[in-house]
# Entry
Amino acid sequence: MTSPAPGVQAGGDVDMAAVGELLADRSRCRMLLALADGRALPASVLASEAGVAPSTASGHLARLTGRGLTEVVATGKYRYYRLAGPEVARLVEVLGRIAPTGPVRSLREGTRAHALRMARRCYDHLAGRLGVAVTDALRDRAWIEGSDGTVDPTERDGHQLPGRLPEDGAYRLTDAGRDGLAGLGVPVPAGLTAVRCCVDWTEQRHHLAGPLAEALLARFDADGWLRSTPGHRALRVTDDGVAGLAASLGVGWPPPAAVLAGVGAGAGRGAAGAGEGRPSPLWSAEGALRAEPARPARRTVSRRGGRWGT
# Structure
């Protein structure tokens, strides 16, 4: 019998049930979703997101951290929690694609669901309808080559699950794309050729992920095209963003009423309870949350650099 390498703990098969037990609790899942945009948040904020008492939240966070799904960031006397890494973020995104959507019981919940469908931060990249639109724009300009980004649930490719498109290396960055992105001030990683993508859980189409998507989102943030929404991971497109997206990529924002009504891919599931596929009357070019009451600014820690933010 072969002995394990030094420092490697011997064990049996993978214990998926241990992770499944953690995810079986709705409060812990809400905490993971709140952290899915890559921020680090204090336990008090996560308790509010999960709808539990601070003492209960501490117990949940201890279990998540103990199993390696979250990690603690200490800043002075404050402790913040964030996802333990991109693999956990991908786990949350994949589960979001196969999990049913929850019922919408209030105007506030409906507004929030609509905003998440429009644009959201998925750990380190852009997701939602805006993420899909940017991916389509790069493909239309021949800056990336590959799949048309749609999901066919009737197809099965080898070991892949029905409807699952290949994610790693599904696209290729072209020379024109490298030059075009450089012209927009996007720092394309040296030697990058294969471009990873995710199947967006609300749109059921591809959006870019990986290093290129991270660089794009960083550029949009730096140019002030996007603004975080207080309270959750939805993003708002600013006036500068509307102009910049149109001028640089030909992306019109907000989407036309026909698209908002659910015409096209992802219409059924992506509505997330927005009202039988009807366009939400709450949408405006300034963002999808004008009916949601403003919340006090909260202190967060950026995953990159440890700076204070609100």
Notes: The mean pLDDT is 76.
